[in-house]
Amino acid sequence: MKLALDIVLIASSVVLVLLILLHRGRGGGLSSLFGGGVQSSLSGSSVAEKNLDRMTLFTAAIWVISIVGTGVLIKLG
């Protein structure tokens, strides 16, 4: 069981990093250092951006659950 949670944790970590890197910069912060602040802000988010947000939140939830599960297994055994 611990091996399965470790695999899920590693896979979700990699996917979460990739999904976060796919997000568009909102201005300010580190993204403006690399030219991200030059873009004009649009009035609304596109469908693709909303789906990317949902996938990121879902992957983050899986990541948190696997962290908690691994912690519980370590504590018990």
Helix/strand layout:
Elements: H1 2-22, H2 47-76
Transmembrane segments: 56-74
Membrane topology: Multi-pass membrane protein
Function: Involved in protein export. Participates in an early event of protein translocation.
For the terminal residues, how far apart are their CA atoms? 12 Å
Largest sheet geometry:
none
Instruction: Estimate nothing, just give the exact number of structural domains.
Output: 1
With helices defined by DSSP (H or I, 4 residues minimum), what is the helix count?
Answer: 2
What is the count of β-strands?
Answer: 0
Share in β-strands: under 5%
SSE order: HH
What is the mean pLDDT?
Answer: 83
* Class inferred from helices and paired strands: mainly alpha
Shape designation:
elongated
Helix content, binned percent? 55-70%
Cα Rg? 17 Å
Low-pLDDT ranges: none
Protein name: Protein-export membrane protein SecG
Pfam families: SecG (PF03840)
Membrane topology: Multi-pass membrane protein
Keywords: Cell membrane, Membrane, Protein transport, Translocation, Transmembrane, Transmembrane helix, Transport
